[in-house]
Amino acid sequence: MSLIKAFPGLRPVSGRAAEVAAPPYDVVSAEEARALVKGRPWSFLHISRPEVDLPRGTDPYAPEVYTKAAENLQGMRDEGILVQDTQPCFYVYRLTMGTHVQTGLVAAASVEAYDRDRIKKHEFTRPVKEDDRVRQIEALNAQTGPVFLVYRSHAEVNDILAGVAKGAPTVDITADDEVRHELWVINDADLIGTLIRAFEGMEALYVADGHHRSAAASRVAAKRRAANPNHTGEEEYNYFLSVIFPHDQMQILDYNRVIRDLNGLDASEFLERLQDRFELTPADQPVKPGQAGEFGMYLDHKWYRLRLHPDRIPTDDPVRRLDVSLLADNLIEPLLGISDPRRDDRIDFIGGIRGLGELERRVNSGEMRIAFALYPTGMEELMAVADAGEVMPPKSTWFEPKLADGLVSHLLD
Fold first, then answer.
1. Cα distances (Å, whole numbers) of residue 400 to 5, 52, 106, 403
2. Is the pTM above the cut of 0.70?
3. Are 72 and 186 within one domain?
4. Are residues 124 and 39 located together in one domain of the fold?
5. Residue 82 falls within a domain, yes or no?
6. Range(s) of the domain holding residue 109
7. CB 379, CB 247: distance < 8 Å
8. What's the CA gap between 276 and 395, in Å, rounded?
C-alpha cells in the first residue's frame, strides 16, 4: 500500500467553486455558520455544519444532523453543483495570504501508514469530537474535511508542484478573509506515478491539523475492513483526504493565553513572585515576542516583557522546551494554579490571527484578569515532538491560512 494515492475527487463544477467553498467546520460557531449561509444555498457549510438547516438549538451531534448532511451532499450532486472526476487525480492547492504563499498536494493518504505511525501525530484527540467525525464520514460515505499534512521539504516534489502551478488554475477564488485559493488538476499518469514514488521515498508525513479527522478515518477503515471478506487494501476507505505541504512553507502563528484571575494573589505579589523565574521589563506598547523564551504579559492596562531565565529552558526534551510548556511550567501552573488547561475554565486560548488587541480587549472587559502573548511554535519543533512519539500541550499551534472545505472531497465507494 503506497503512502499516498490519486483519487477521483468530488469537486464544484466549473464556475461554481466560489459559491461552494467554505471555512473549515471547526473554525466557525453554529451562529456564525448560519450567518455565512444566508443567500448561499450551495455553501459547503450546509454539509459541514448541517445544523444551519435545522431549528436553532439543535444538538450538533444529533442523528438528524448527520442525516441532513447526507441529504445536502446528495442534493448538491443531483443539482450538478458537485461532480466527481472520471479518473484518479492529484490536485495542486495553493494558498496565498498577503505575502505568504504555500503550495501543496491534495492526495489520499494511507490509513495503514497512519496506524503504523509513518504519518505522525502530535496531539491527543477528544472522544466526542472523534466520534462526531466518524458519524459524519459514515453518513456521507465520504471525507469532506481534508487533513492538513506536512512533508519535510523535498526538492523534486516542490519543483513538480511549482511547475504545475505555472499553468492556468482550474479554481481561482478569494475568500471573504482575503485568502486566495487556487487549484490545479493532475491527471497525467506518468506525473502521478512520479509523485507517488517521491512520497514513497519519504520517511514520514506529519499531521499539522486534523487529528480528529485522521483518527476518525482510521476507525471507519478498521470497521469496513472487518466487514469486508474481500478486502484488498486498495479500497477508498483505506485512505483519507489530505492536503500535504512542505514544512518550510508553513506559517504558524502564536497561540496566546488569557486567564480569569491571579489565583488569590494581588498584582504586586504576583509580579514579585514571577521574577524568581523571569526577567521582567515594563513596556510602553504591546509586546509581541521576538524569540523563544520571551513572552508578552498584559495586566492592569500595562504591558510587560518577560524573559525566562536561560537555566530554566531544558535542552533535551522536545516537549518541555516548547514555549507553551515553558510558560505553563514556570508561571501558569506554579503561580496561577492551572495544571490541566484542557479542562480548567479559568484559561482560554486566542489564535494569533486575532492580534494582541484581542488580548487587551478580553482583559479590559473584566472577563479576564491577565493575558500572555507567546512566540509561535516552529515546524521543526512540531516534527521533533512527533518524531519522539510525544504529544504537544493543548493549543500549541495556530496555522494560517486555513484550508477551504468543499474544493475537493473523497468518496469512499
1. 26, 25, 17, 9
2. yes
3. yes
4. yes
5. yes
6. 4-251+402-411
7. yes
8. 26
